[in-house]
Amino acid sequence: MNNDQRLDLAVQAVVRAAEVCEAVRKQLVAIDKHDKGDRSPVTVADFASQAVIAQVLAEAGLPIVAEESLAELDEASEDLRTKAAEASGMSADDLRKHVAMGGGEPTGTYWVLDPIDGTKGFLRGGQYAIALALVEDGRPTMGLLGCPRWDIGRLFAAAEGDAWTASLSRAESHQPITAAGTNETIRLTESVESGHADHDLSTRLAEAIGVTEEPLRMDSQAKYAAVASGEADVYLRVSPGKTYREKVWDHAAGVAVVEAAGGRVTDATGKPLDFTAGRKLDNNTGIVATGGPQSLHDRVVAALKSSM
């Protein structure tokens, strides 16, 4: 299977998952959420989304490295598992089989999936993204961000060095995007959740590089889409602790989209992101993504070092 065929499958998978997620979100109740061991939430939609994407991607015959695990599904309530099966249109056994496909090994050529990136945003009705990437030899070469809450629902995608956006309802009709920045001013985008962003550090950084606008705060890898499409200039994520390392599914798709749109992504020290280390970016600390002129990235990294 060539990459054009893989891209077609990936688009089908993300669009289908977006439909499932929105259907679940519109009738979500408190019992439809389960807290994982790290206290992060997982919902009916997370499991259903992962299962339907894995089902579509099975045709490609590649490993899938995904956030949700079969163990977490089995630990969830019977009611949540039943609703996830119903939402995915699968039997309970098929749901388990396809969720389990996310336990693939991150070597060679493989898919990286976050079935709902920004689950807290999903729960509160904010931004969230279905984030899917293809990694080849340690580099994300294809990325898709399905953002059902962006306008009436947008798909941001990248493949073969090109980046574009389309309506989720008309994914075949797309327009190119460029990480050209906001030109007149520099605008930051950062997480809504305080646990995912150091807002004080962002304020110091903003002062250092001359930002005067309020930051664009949103959940999920939609922040990468904001940079890739020129809605924002800088996405900053500083790791919450010295030993914390980012997970590959939280960044692979966004990195592919920003870089294909002409932007730049490194860690907080300016090092390229290393996707060869497994399920985490063990050789990197923090994330800096920028659009606009290449010099902006160097300025941000330098200011970040000083601010920290």
Secondary-structure map with pairings?
Blueprint: H1 3-25, E1 33-35, E2 41-43, H2 44-57, E3 64-66, H3 70-75, H4 78-88, H5 92-100, E4 109-117, H6 119-124, E5 129-136, E6 139-147, E7 154-159, E8 162-167, E9 174-176, E10 188-190, H7 199-209, E11 216-217, H8 222-228, E12 234-237, H9 252-260, E13 264-266, E14 287-290, H10 294-307
Parallel strand pairs: 3-4, 10-11, 10-12
Antiparallel strand pairs: 1-2, 4-5, 5-6, 6-7, 7-8, 8-9, 12-14, 13-14
Percentage of residues in helical conformation: 25-40%
- Taken in chain order, the helices and strands follow as HEEHEHHHEHEEEEEEHEHEHEEH
Q: Give Rg in angstroms.
A: 18 Å
Number of helices: 10
Unreliable stretches covering 5 or more consecutive residues: none
Shape field: globular
Give me the side-by-side strand order of the main sheet.
Answer: 3-4-5-6-7-8-9
Structural class: alpha+beta
Q: Largest sheet, if any?
A: 7 strands, mixed
- Percent strand equals 15-25%
Q: Oligomeric state of the chains?
A: single chain
- Please tell me the overall pLDDT: 90
Q: Give the tally of β-strands.
A: 14
End-to-end C-alpha gap: 46 Å
Descriptive notes:
- It contains 10 helices and 14 strands.
- The mean pLDDT is 90.
- It has 308 residues and is an alpha+beta fold.
- Strands 3-4-5-6-7-8-9 form a 7-stranded mixed beta sheet, with helices on both faces. A 5-stranded mixed beta sheet has the order 11-10-12-14-13, sandwiched between helices.
- The radius of gyration is 18 Å and the shape is globular.
- The chain has helices at 3-25, 44-57, 70-75, 78-88, 92-100, 119-124, 199-209, 222-228, 252-260, 294-307, and strands spanning 33-35, 41-43, 64-66, 109-117, 129-136, 139-147, 154-159, 162-167, 174-176, 188-190, 216-217, 234-237, 264-266, 287-290.
